[in-house]
Amino acid sequence: MRLFTKYSRVSIMASVLALLLGGVGYFFAVRFVLVHELDDAIRIEEEEILDNVARHGRLPKPANYRDQQIAYVPARQPEQPRLINTTWAYLESQLTNAIRVSDTTDEPEAGSRPRGRHARKRDPDDPCRALIFSVKVGNQYYTAYVSKSEEETEDLLVVIMCLTAGMILLMLGILFLANRLLLRRIWQPFYHTLEGIRAFNLSSRQLLPAESTDIDEFRRLDEAARQMTGQISRDYEMLKNFTENASHEMQTPLAIINSKLDLLIQDTRMREEHHQPVQAMYDAIGRLRQLNSSLLLLTKIENNQFAQTESLDLAPLIEQKLAQLEDPLKARQLEVRRELSGARVAINSYLADILLNNLLINAIRHNKLAGQVDIRLEEHRLRISNSGPAPSFDPETIFDRFVKGSNSGGTGLGLAIVRQICDNYNFSVGYSYSGEMHTIEVVFPS
Questions:
Q1: 325: helix, coil or strand?
Q2: What is the pLDDT of residue 120?
Q3: Burial class (CB in 10 A: 0-12, 13-18, 19+), 144
Q4: Whole-number mean pLDDT of the chain?
Q5: Which of 71, 130, 202, 301 is surrounded by the most beta carbons within 10 Å?
Q6: How many whole angstroms separate alpha carbon 85 and alpha carbon 65?
């Protein structure tokens, strides 16, 4: 999962949670404000009732409307505890009885305002805010019931919450688009730096391109990556120069030792018992010279010293190599089966000769006596197989340097050179073992 995708998910989930909690809090805050305003209206009704009693000595006319109800009931107790709350059917029976009783009270004086706007009665299931308090008219105590319907309050609250939900959805949509579009653009310098690191190749000698960005973290990352790759390139260049110089310097003393051993072997005064150790030294010097030449070849390939390429047909080159290797093939009694078709590859001619030579020598050297070698060349693929026992090492390391079989007389660099050549030309090379057959396959790009 990409970082900005994970960040987008976390930020959206956090935003959803925050908006939900904020929406719930906003709902209760708005409801509290609306109910508080409703309570203020009920208290105003209370004050008007008490004021009317104080001024005129009589109760106002009761009301029974959809949004407001006012009723009075004679009380036996001197005082009724004052109570205000939200109720549904809690006061319905008492209000009905109170209104029936209040209908027998005197009419309000002329000029008193009507109470309520609609003549329709309230639905008993609708919520309302009710105030119960005591009032004294003359020597008689009454319990006053004042209630206001919360229907309009609830309707207004529903409208407000619908608008709030719409705003939340709009904000989430904008946040999602911002994460998908804006954050992707913001993270582009990071991905450019990452692609540059991924495409970095020591042999190309090219440093990472500078990435311009106004984000400090990405700019520091780019600078650190360029410093790191620059230091790696310098260290690698020093190591290659050392390897190349050491290989060149070793050529002269090896040639001198080899020539002295040639003279020593040809000396007639040498005793018979000295021939075997001198021959062992001669063979060791030969392997050392071969190893030195292979290391020098690897260094030259890595340094791109074979930049010149040409389109070569590999079929005749394979035939030439088989003719050159006729003696070792006969010595091991190997049967060669070949199926060659035209395959032209853009490659340096010298490296093509090295590639085919190492693959065929590997198939001969690691073959069993009286075994077989299968060569199949197609338009974009070369497959060379040889019979033999299963490898005694990890097949995943077969193309590593100095990895060789127990019975091998090579230097362990043949297949490493093959892989280096393939890497230089973007060929893919692989190894497999099946049915007592070792197979190395080189796939050429289209």
A1: coil
A2: 44
A3: buried
A4: 80
A5: 71
A6: 19
Which two three-digit tokens encode residue 415? 């297949």
pTM for the model: 0.50
Looking at the chain, how many residues does it have?
Answer: 446
Tens-digit pLDDT profile for residues 286-298: 888 878 788 778 7
- DSSP reduced 3-state for 129: strand
* Region 310-443: CATH code: 3.30.565.10
Q: What is the mean pLDDT of residues 116-122?
A: 43
- Enter the CATH code of domain 216-302: 1.10.287
Residue 161, token pair as written in the block: 């919450």
Distance CA 275, CA 282 (A): 10
The CA dihedral of 116, 120, 124, 129, to the nearest 10 degrees, is: -10
Q: Where in the chain is the domain with CATH 3.30.565.10?
A: 310-443
Contacts 24+ apart (CB under 8 A), 314-322: 314/343, 314/344, 314/345, 314/352, 314/356, 314/377, 314/382, 315/340, 315/341, 315/342, 315/343, 315/377, 317/352, 317/353, 317/356, 318/356, 318/360, 318/375, 318/377, 321/353, 321/356, 321/357, 321/360, 322/360
DSSP state of 79: -
Which one, of 71, 73, 58, lies nearest residue 130 by Cα?
71
State both tokens at 130: 């009710």
| pLDDT for residue 54 is more than 70 | yes
Q: Cα separation of 235 and 252, whole Å?
A: 27
Query: Which residues lie below 8 Å from residue 288, measured CB to CB, with a gap of 6+?
Result: 254
pLDDT at 276 exceeding the cut of 60: yes
Residue 356 to residue 384: CA distance in whole angstroms = 10
| Lookup result for tokens 């692609």 | 195
DSSP-derived letter for residue 178 is: I
Backbone angle region of 270, left / alpha / beta, with phi > 0 → left and psi within -120 to 50 → alpha:
beta
* Spatial separation of the C-alpha atoms in residues 252 and 156, rounded to whole Å: 100
For residue 105, what is the DSSP state?
S
Residue 324: strand, helix, or coil: helix
